Amino acid sequence: MAKRVLLLFISEHSGHHCASRAIEKSLKMIDPTTETLNLNSFNYTNPILEKIINQAYMEVVKRTPEVWEYLYDNPKVLKNTQKLRAMIHNFNTGKLKTLLSDFKPDAIVCTQAFPCGMIADYKKSFGIKIPLIGVLTDYAPHSYWVFNDVDRYIVPSSETGKKLIDNGVDPAKIEEFGIPIDPKFNISRSKDEICKEMGLDVDVPCVLIMGGTQGLGPIKNVAKLLETSRLNLQVVITTGTNKKIYNWLKSRRFKKKFIILPFADNVNELMRVATVIITKPGGITTAEALAMGVPMLILHPLPGQEAMNTRFLLKEGVAIKAESPEDVVVVLEELLYNESKLKVMSLKARALSKPDSAINIARLTMNLAL
């Protein structure tokens, strides 16, 4: 009999969604008869609140990032919001009951802490035994992940797992599989073939600029600075869902070779041809870059999870941080003229990567499924 797996994430254009899609794809690869439901849990349970919180979050991280830094994984905030979170979970009970009754999942996988906590509380309140798997998509776990009724935690690194254990999680519940990325990152065409298809020169360094799924960061400034620099390079920029940045870049006449793309579904190929990637260190982008062995130049990480990801990547020697768009050119020049350093960073990245994470999570899910 076919297994049913419920996958829960929040926000359509997010790393959480990318992770849940990667796991869903892997589940189908293992057993094509598997029935899956991949659901934006926040939109399902609280559609109006989702819009308000998403808008508020974007405004905070853009205008007053120090506020988000204070709120992120703050024990005082965690304690003061316990009643509010309990109230939201209770409010969502009816919708959850309908969802679980209709779909009848054999296992539930959550790639974000909000649905994970919601399901964990539901399991506790009603005594249900559906296996619940929490999948962390950043290298630093926050306290909102910790619940007794989570059966397994998937973590990116041993350091991440240790922090969960320090917060009271049973070590037997932790699996160090890594951040789930699309299985296609294990399949790669030749660099020459992709360059020819894209109109890139295989012998000229290629810089890939990414601002996450929402095209955040000083992409305009970096593009202008690279264009006027003395560096011999070609540039590929993906702008995600940021139409304003995309239209501005497409309307500009660049003297150097610039390829401007909107939301790209061939990131594996773009990273395959990249010499260096200039990016925000979101969990998914980071895991993808590690899998492809691309050295990272980090600029303007968001406070909270991205700042913590940055510390991890710098410590492991797979990334360099630039303090400003102007600094990007200086750091990039140093990197491009130091091929041995680039090679060492690339080797370290591949050694740190876990490209089979999604497949391993899918196998565990099927094994735990009722």
Strand content: 5-15%
Low-confidence stretches: none
SSE arrangement, N to C: EHEHHHHHHEHEEHEHEHEHEHEHEHEHHH
Would you count the extended β strands for me? 12
Distance between the termini: 11 Å
* CATH top-level class of the largest domain: Alpha Beta
Number of domains: 2
Task: Provide the CATH topology of the largest domain.
Answer: Rossmann fold
Looking at CATH, the homologous superfamily of the largest domain is Glycogen Phosphorylase B
CATH architecture of the largest domain: 3-Layer(aba) Sandwich
State the shape.
Answer: elongated
Strand order of the largest sheet: 2-1-3-4-5-6
Helix content: 40-55%
Specify the number of helices. Answer: 18
Q: Overview of this structure, please?
A:
Strands 2-1-3-4-5-6 form a six-stranded parallel sheet, with helices on both faces. A six-stranded parallel sheet has the order 9-8-7-10-11-12, with helices on both faces. It is 51% helix and 14% strand. It has 18 helices and twelve strands. The protein is elongated, with a radius of gyration of 21 Å. The protein is of the alpha/beta class. The chain folds into two domains: 4-181 and 355-368, Glycogen Phosphorylase B (Rossmann fold, 3-Layer(aba) Sandwich); 186-352, Rossmann fold.
In short:
By secondary structure, the chain is α/β, with parallel strands linked by helices. It has helices at 15-30, 41-45, 47-63, 65-71, 75-80, 82-91, 93-103, 113-126, 158-166, 191-198, 219-228, 243-251, 267-273, 283-292, 305-316, 325-336, 339-352, 357-368; strands spanning 4-9, 35-40, 107-110, 132-135, 152-154, 174-175, 206-210, 234-238, 258-261, 276-279, 296-299, 319-322.
